[in-house]
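stage 2 :: seqdesign
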């Protein structure tokens, strides 16, 4: 299995909120709903993120459902993501940038336009329910300039690298934790 396939498998697992082996719109919006259940966020806080995840489903993910069964399985996800990256790079990256910016805006509790280690780990732990240590370690790899904060550009760059790089040592590969 290639490095990109390993990362796409992990992304599928992260997005599959109900763990039924298929992605649907509810899986994506459930990620923001989980965050609203945490003591740090309210449903009003996560509305922008929820909207960007719903838009990501409507414009990208639902088109991956090639057999029209109402969900996207692992094989459809991997194949479609690889194809869209090649054929529709500008549109998919614009949607990912919108989602990335919504994450940054939501997690940026002190309003400085950057994410501290705590802001980053709290957000992703709240959404994906993976151990905080997973994201704490990832933060070290993603902080490209070593200033102890993640900028929107660092986050967007990491997400793009995660979904495109075949290089095992690429820092963005660590977005959801160590491969």
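stage 2 :: out
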């Amino acid at each position: 299995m290639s490095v990109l396939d390993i990362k796409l498998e992990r992304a599928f697992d992260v997005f599959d909120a109900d763990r039924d082996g298929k992605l649907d719109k509810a899986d994506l919006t459930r990620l923001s709903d989980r965050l609203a259940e945490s003591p740090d966020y309210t449903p009003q806080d996560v509305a922008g993120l929820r909207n960007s995840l719903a838009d990501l489903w409507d414009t990208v993910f639902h088109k991956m459902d090639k057999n029209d069964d109402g969900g996207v399985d692992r094989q459809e996800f991997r194949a479609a993501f690889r194809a869209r990256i090649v054929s529709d790079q500008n549109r998919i990256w614009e949607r990912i940038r919108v989602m990335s910016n919504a994450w940054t805006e939501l997690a940026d509790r002190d309003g400085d336009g950057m994410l501290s280690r705590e802001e980053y780990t709290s957000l992703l732990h709240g959404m994906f329910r993976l151990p905080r240590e997973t994201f704490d370690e990832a933060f070290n790899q993603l902080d490209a300039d070593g200033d102890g904060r993640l900028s929107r550009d660092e986050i967007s760059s990491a997400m793009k690298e995660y979904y495109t790089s075949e290089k095992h040592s690429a820092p963005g590969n660590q977005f959801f934790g160590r491969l």
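stage 3 :: structure notes
- The mean pLDDT is 86.
- The first strand starts at residue 115 and ends at 116.
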